[in-house]
Fold:
Amino acid sequence: MTNTVKGPAGYFPSIEKKYGRPIAEWKTLIRSSPLTKHMELVSWLQSEHGLGHGHANALVSHTLAEDSGK
Structure:
């Protein structure tokens, strides 16, 4: 029986494959942005880096949750 990753991290393999950057690099970009609100960050990833909504949302959700200790 294999463990399936659930939640936002479940998107990570396809994000890395599609956009060619490791997840750690995306998280660094998110953390270095002057933006702090979830949807602002999602929109920024979409407009400036060409991510789709689902991928951007997954990265932002996971990063903000990590940073808040959740």
